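input
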Amino acid sequence: MKEINILVLDDEKVFRKEIKEFLDGEGFSVLTAERPSEAFSILSENHIDILILDLRLPEMDGLQVLTKVKEEYPDIEVIMITGHGDMDAVINAMRMGAIEFFPKPFRLLDMRAAIQRTKRYIALNEQLKEINQTYSLVSKDLIESIGTEIIGNSFGIRQVVDLMGKVAKTDNTSVLITGESGTGKELVARGIHYLSSRKKSYFYAVNCSAIPDTLFESEFFGHKKGAFTGANEDKAGWFEVANGGTLFLDEVVEMQPAMQSKLLRVLEDRKIRRIGSSVDIPVDVRIIAATNQDINKLIEDGKFRGDLYYRLNSFQIHIPPLRERKEDIPILFDYYVKHISTRMGKKINQVDPFIVKAMMSYNFPGNIREMRNMVERAIILSEGGRLTMKNFSGLIAPADSTPTTGVIGEEIFDLDLIEKIVIMKALERTGYKKTKAAQLLNITRQALDRRLEKYDINL
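output
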């Protein structure tokens, strides 16, 4: 990571000098300022990563400085220090974005530990920004190319998108996509194709489990007229059809051992021969394979060739199941409600807020495909432009799904129940992001956590 630049703003010379000498000795680049005006002059001319800020200052207090810094330099992390035990100021500072708070006097070793934590936080933020940038670019390209995007905002799905963008830049690298049924393996394969230099050529998807063994070789490699009974004309196989593009082999582990051997030979030689022909045909195809099975176990059991696995697995992308990225559920639900209702021409004006909560508690064994089908069925069953829990037969209604009117408290006089409903609404409004929900509720993240525990709300 790059060098960390620190600015110390404190009107007490002794503290400024002591902190600077200590942090200089720790290898940090440290500047100091006595007054806010001096500090903002330094900020305008230097890149600063961490601001160590005293609460009591001339010209303006530390909270005002913090507000201005977060407005003008939002990437700067702020560590507050004070010699006054003002807990309200501490709470306000943390709400406004301060990352640490130290009362004077403090141990310099504790300050160093705080800076090291902040340094790691900055590094993670930089990585996240890089992933976000890649994710945005990839999603934009996918929308323009195939009219859809990989839906989700979780770290797991962002990693998938990041890997898609990286492997798409290569031309011939074989890719193995793993993940449970319904996670979107073909969508990821199509995304890689349309992000690559092969996007103007054909993407051909094959379900290996749906092809009879007797037709496998003919489908893969094609045949000449008269090669066998019923071969009434020349036929190009999948490799020829996808030449210059991408061949997607879904459930590749379903291939019989004999076909596995022939596929391996094609991957090594980059040539195919039609049944009944003596002429080799060169092919230029990227192979993307996928499976929802434990391929290593199949290799151990002798059901799949290890050498073919290593050839296919030049680059692997694993798609996590929906139950491991539940923060994507509200986003996916909202997307499918809008997308499917528009396609059906059936307007949905109102959605029961407890549906998403019930989904957050559901395991989704069928993953995204199951959610899509669930939403489609519910929209078909819906009446009056409203989606309710009764439209989702597979979901269990949450215990707190008491019907209410539009105004909280109009029909409910149980304060705990009202608070729980308000918290759920805040979570739903913010996509189940606890920090944002706490800000919306005007409480601290810690206070929200206490209330989630109190009301047994599991996220």
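quick obs: The two ends are 33 Å apart (CA to CA).
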